[in-house]
Amino acid sequence: MSALSGRQCLDHLARERFDLVLLDIQMPELNGFETAVLVRQQEAQQAQSPDPPGPSAPPRIPIIALTTVSEPGTRDKCLSAGMDDHLTKPVNTQALYSMVQKFLGLAP
Question: Which of 43, 55, 60 is nearest to 104 (CA)?
């Protein structure tokens, strides 16, 4: 599933369960940093809810940032926003596969 904006991403996450999110940092409406912060806030609210999510809902979805921004501090900014890691575009497919395996707990 793809989203064209941070708002669409949040809408998709509200309706469906996903194992992992690849999140572009430069999106319209809400950028990737803002979107990640909101995802983490929603997860925190759900965790404190008296009706916890069912077994199919993960407590924390892994978020991997995708960005063309390669300036110093970008990775730290991603992590501070609640993302789990980041990859710089153009994405090296082996690095992407390795990262997905890592965050989904799959054997390499």
Answer: 60
Give the integer Cα–Cα distance in Å for 54 and 45.
14
Q: How far apart are CA 91 and CA 103, in angstroms?
A: 17
Burial class (CB in 10 A: 0-12, 13-18, 19+), 108: exposed
Q: What is the pLDDT of residues 56-86, one digit of tens each?
A: 555 799 999 999 887 889 999 999 999 999 9
Q: Which amino acid is at 16?
A: E
Spatial contact of 20 and 103, defined as CB atoms under 8 Å apart: yes
pTM of full prediction above 0.85:
yes
Pair of tokens at residue 46 = 């759900």
| Tokens standing for residue 47 | 């965790």
Give CA–CA dist 29/40, Å, rounded. 18
> Do the beta carbons of residue 67 and residue 32 sit within 8 Å?
yes
